[in-house]
């Protein structure tokens, strides 16, 4: 999920429900802008409120739609989500014990959680390092060896390990300068961490070497404002140093935090592992995604999700770091086999050693009449040029593809500056800039990222499908794309297959005409 560390691009604010803002007041439009109707407010939301009024007028009752959230967490105790959870009718299955609301592929049998892992590029670099480090292209005569060597060079560059190796002597020396300066400051004040940088620069020491270290520390702090506290600066530098040490020391250590799960990581058939724990207090991402899809509507608290008929299935497979292909592939299959109608995937990366496992699983989902919605990513990259994983599955039948890649749009209908794009590989856009949703521990927050555009589209899909349950998954996808076609902007031209933003009200009207044919 490196790209979606990325994927939760910017966390703007976090607030408790006690702070109070109403779902129904006009002052909440900035937080709820993704629900607005551009025709009445000039804000490019998805017309949620008008869509529900239209459903009432049409006397349409929504059927339940199961939406699987493959992510890093799901707070099943959240006040705005706990009544919207999918209930597993076979929760005592021997392979998935106590899987009441989903499954955790990043957990051990004794209930522990795997939270932080490295990037895929660094994991791959370590795997291939013994074979290829120090070699040159001319050392290889076989095409397959040369291809793997080129891959090795790519993951090495992406991991940035060479920078750590080249500059570690400087990083170490700089940290020593900071550490000495910190010790000297501690002698001058009982609260030396609060001393602003501009005062640190005036610190003098009779020892020439010590003074050189102090001056070096101050010079290296050029990126900080003069008013920044010393404690903030020193903590940052210490973190940088310890990260470099950890990276270098781990080069000869082939283990990773996920090893404690105990499965055979290179065997996709070894699939029964993990636990039922979905709550991760160190993460908010999946809970945020779930809220956008289906937080309880009109309950007088928190926020309103898009789909009042959504039943949320949580599948934990995305750590802090890059997800493992095996976990993602099995998470997709779990969702399909347990009745999910829609799968939301707000994650991604640029290296995938077992990508076929994932694309095969996605293909399985499409064949089983499941709509798969994926976030485009937050690196402002052209996905027609750069491959992002999971990679789009091949179309089952011409014009019958139930897969959507979603970029992020702003309240003015333009592409969010961080959003990936692609006239051939991104299908459409949806609100993803400064949107508000649920967070862990009954909190709410505002954040940006394509991670949050995808669940808005998943929510639209759930409402449309719930209103017209005889539709096929590919038809729901086509209807959502058609809704974006009614909401195009010149600023999105060439940025996606459909250069527009998804719209729930238009999608429902299109669906009505579609089923009436």
From TrEMBL:
What Pfam families does the entry give? Peptidase_S8 (PF00082)
Per UniProt, the keywords (alphabetical) are:
Hydrolase, Protease, Serine protease
Bilayer-crossing regions: none
The protein, known as: Peptidase S8/S53 domain-containing protein
- Tell me the classification of the organism that encodes this protein: Bacteria, Pseudomonadati, Bacteroidota, Sphingobacteriia, Sphingobacteriales
Q: Which GO terms describe its biological process?
A: proteolysis
Active site at 71 (charge relay system), 285 (charge relay system), 451 (charge relay system)
Highest taxon above the source species: Bacteria
Instruction: Enumerate the spans annotated as Peptidase S8/S53 domain.
Output: 65-489
List GO molecular-function terms, semicolon-separated: serine-type endopeptidase activity
């Amino acid at each position: 999920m490196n790209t979606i560390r990325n994927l939760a691009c910017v966390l703007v604010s976090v607030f408790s429900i006690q702070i109070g803002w109403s779902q129904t007041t006009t002052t909440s439009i900035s937080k709820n802008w993704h629900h607005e109707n551009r025709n009445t407010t000039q804000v490019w939301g998805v017309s949620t409120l008008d869509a529900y009024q239209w459903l009432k007028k049409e006397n349409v009752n929504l059927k339940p739609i199961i939406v699987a959230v493959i992510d890093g967490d799901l707070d099943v105790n959240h006040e705005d989500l706990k009544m919207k959870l999918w209930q597993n009718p076979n929760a005592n299955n021997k392979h998935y014990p106590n899987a009441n609301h989903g499954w955790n592929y990043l957990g051990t049998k004794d209930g522990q959680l795997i939270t932080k892992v490295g990037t895929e590029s660094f994991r791959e670099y370590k795997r291939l390092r013994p074979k290829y480090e120090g070699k040159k292209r001319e050392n290889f005569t076989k095409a397959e060896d040369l291809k793997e060597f080129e891959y090795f060079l790519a993951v090495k560059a992406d991991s940035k390990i060479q920078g750590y190796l080249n500059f570690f002597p400087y990083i170490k020396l700089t940290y020593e300068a900071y550490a000495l300066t910190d010790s000297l400051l501690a002698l001058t004040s009982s609260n030396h961490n609060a001393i602003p940088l501009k005062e640190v620069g005036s610190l003098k020491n009779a020892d020439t070497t010590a003074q050189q270290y102090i001056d070096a520390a101050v010079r290296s702090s050029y990126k900080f404002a003069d008013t920044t506290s010393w404690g903030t600066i020193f903590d940052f530098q210490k973190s940088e140093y310890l990260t470099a040490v950890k990276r270098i020391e781990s080069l000869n250590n082939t283990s990773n935090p996920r090893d404690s799960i105990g499965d055979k990581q290179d065997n996709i058939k070894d699939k029964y592992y993990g636990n039922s724990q979905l709550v991760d207090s160190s993460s908010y991402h999946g809970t945020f995604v779930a809220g956008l899809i289906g937080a309880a509507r009109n309950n007088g608290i928190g926020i309103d999700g898009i789909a009042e008929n959504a039943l949320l299935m949580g599948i934990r497979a995305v750590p802090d770091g890059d997800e493992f292909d095996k976990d993602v592939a099995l998470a997709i299959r779990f969702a399909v086999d347990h009745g999910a109608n829609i799968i939301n995937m707000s994650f991604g990366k640029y290296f995938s050693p077992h990508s076929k496992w994932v694309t095969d699983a996605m293909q399985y989902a499409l064949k089983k009449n499941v709509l798969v919605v994926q976030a485009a990513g937050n690196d402002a990259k052209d996905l027609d040029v750069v491959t992002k994983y999971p990679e789009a599955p091949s179309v089952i039948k011409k014009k019958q593809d139930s897969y959507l890649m979603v970029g992020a749009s702003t309240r003015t209908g333009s592409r969010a500056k961080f959003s990936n794009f692609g006239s051939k590989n991104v299908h459409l856009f949806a609100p993803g800039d400064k949107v508000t949703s649920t967070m862990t521990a009954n909190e709410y927050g505002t954040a940006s990222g394509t991670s949050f555009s995808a669940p808005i589209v998943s929510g639209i899909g759930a409402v449309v499908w719930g209103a017209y349950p005889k539709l096929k998954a590919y038809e729901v996808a086509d209807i959502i794309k058609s809704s974006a076609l009614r909401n195009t902007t010149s600023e999105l031209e060439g940025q996606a297959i459909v250069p527009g933003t998804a719209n729930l009200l238009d999608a429902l009207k299109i669906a009505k005409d579609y089923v009436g044919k």
